[in-house]
Amino acid sequence: MRLEKASTYGLLALITLAKREASQPARVHDIARSTGVPIEYLRKLLRRLLQAQLIRSVRGRHGGYLLARPLERISVLHVIEAIEGPIDRNTIIDDASLSRALDEAMGQLPQWRLDAADRVRDLFSQTCLQDLVEV
């Protein structure tokens, strides 16, 4: 599995918010400038993150976006699912680069691929925004 561009951009936006002072909302233009994400695309991603309650919006002249939770309570999995929708074993292991011939020859999805999918999901759920900001 690879992260889709949208999820990567969403993580970049959240990292940008995480690096700001907690009480200082970031405007969309500032986030776009900092991340390099096209502004209209960023607005769509921010709406999804807002719906998932990972960020909150502040209205008014000095408004913008803030994280809605502490860094350690926002996992990579939260971000991916907010942007791409729920992911399960099939989502994780559906990769064209893996040999379909092997799957067909075995008649079913090999157990090792299911185990790998579970480990990837666990890694995403255990890696929080705090981990990414500290890197």
Q: What descriptive keywords fit this protein?
A:
single chain; 135 residues; mainly alpha; Arc Repressor Mutant, subunit A
Give an overview in words.
The chain is mainly alpha-helical and 135 residues long. The chain has one domain (5-134): Arc Repressor Mutant, subunit A, CATH 1.10.10. The protein has 8 helices and 2 strands. Strands 1-2 form a two-stranded antiparallel ribbon. A hairpin with a 5-residue loop joins strand 1 and strand 2. Helix 1 (5-18) crosses helix 2, helix 1 (5-18) crosses helix 3 (39-51) and helix 1 (5-18) crosses helix 4 (76-84). The model has no long low-confidence stretch (mean pLDDT 86).
Low confidence ranges: none
Percent strand: 5-15%
Can you tell me the overall shape?
Answer: elongated
CATH homology superfamily: Winged helix-like DNA-binding domain superfamily/Winged helix DNA-binding domain
Number of helices: 8
The radius of gyration computed from the alpha-carbon positions, rounded to a whole number of angstroms, is: 17 Å
By DSSP, the count of extended strands is 2
Q: Within the largest sheet, what's the order of strands?
A: 1-2
Task: Quickly describe the structure.
This protein has 135 residues and is mainly α. It has one domain (5-134): Winged helix-like DNA-binding domain superfamily/Winged helix DNA-binding domain (Arc Repressor Mutant, subunit A, Orthogonal Bundle), CATH 1.10.10.
